[in-house]
Amino acid sequence: MEKLFQALRFRADLFPHQPALISDIGENKVTISNQQLLQKITKVEEALNEQKAKSIGLFMDNCSEWIICDLAAARLGVTLVPIPLFFTAAQIGHLAKSAKLDIIITKKALTRALTTNSHLNFVSDCNANVEPKLLPLDETIMLPISHNYRFDSLGNTINNDMAGITKVTYTSGSTGEPKGVCLSSANIAAVCEGIEDSMVQMGISDHLCVMPLATLLENIAGVYICLLRGGAVITAPLATLGFVSNVEFDIDKLVNKITLHQVGSVILLPQILKCLVHASNESVLTKCASLAFIALGGGKSSQDILQQAIDSGLPVYEGYGLSECCSVVSLNLPQQNRIGSVGKVLPHARISIAEDGEIIIDGQAMIGYLGELNQVPKKVHTGDLGYIDEDGFIYVSGRKNNTIVSSFGRNISPEWVEANLTSSSIISQVAVFGEARPALSAIVVASNNNDLAVKNAIEECNKYLPDYAQIHHWLIADTPFNTQSNTLTNNGRLKRNNIEQMYEDKLAALYS
Length: 512
Fold this sequence. Notes:
By secondary structure, the chain is an alpha/beta fold.
């Protein structure tokens, strides 16, 4: 990551007063200049050195302090472990134990979430005279952890050497127990340089962090790339950006932030883009006029929504990547954009398609999973199905393990059908089934639980699908899919088996 720090030093010398980080905190806006950023990184390094910590957890909402702590850990050469805010107490306990965290850096307001039912044994709990040490950042504290963990259900402590691991990013497994993906400084540097090289023809602009900073995609493609290219990174608490819950998003809040800061780039999830497209009118498009690059990732997007976005003038560019390959692998760009594809492979990686259609990635594979560092993969078998067209554009059609085989022998990717269905403003979430059945069925979470409205929305979507992939049967879900009901993973993917079991009798009745 030396190139990033060289860029920071260069701009601190040449443009010391130019903004590097901007925190939007309610009515206040705190700007940190290029020179101040380096100074703050140095102070945090000194504080971390005093603790002699080798593995550091970071548990904060989006803010400048998050970025400063992250950069300080990287420059110091210690392992940084972002802790997602949506993790349960049990998952935080698992993460802390498996990553052998020495300290957790957090905000005072969040300490209760860590110290209540988290199964962590903080030093401050063991000795009443020991107080959490303040970092040289506003309202930020350092909680040292005793390694006498009270988390008995994990069994033996995972024995792993954290040396050489710059970042551990946790993915939520299908069972909900997070897995730690270990990345090196070389991994991160190569991906950053690959993305940066592909964007040389684009102008430099400020970036608004919309996704949580604990998300690797925002951390690398958002923060690092913006700083490398000389823009300012703007952060604001997630709730002020429009995140209401796991299934609700207030697009007006995001549009207002884009307008307020006149940002040039954002990274959006498919559901947020859908909200933006459905809300688009002359006023909204005028407010978003500063945007030059909307990167789209985190899941399969509807081609219809993408086309609507492009037609309305929104500069949307879909990409593809995964944590095991240090985030972004391919990306559409202004000079080469093909709607429906996830772009061309970036310089740091290579992509091939196996005989069964699985996408295989070679280049910048992770060091390994925590506890499995002796099993370093040479190539990453993604589990995604897709193909590459004659011009080199990559298409992702679905998940290998999710493929539905109908009773007529048709192979159908449910993600493909679901992406088309959720392009409707009526359908918020949907799970498609039909294994060994003559036709597909859908469980629908609707914004309007009116049966006729849902029926019309499905019939409209069916017009754009071949007959074997059309929805012939459907029912409205009792409640939205979410983590609490164990119908969504922590990163928003459907837990299909759980949903199918929950509605087993009702699905069977549809076919009877």
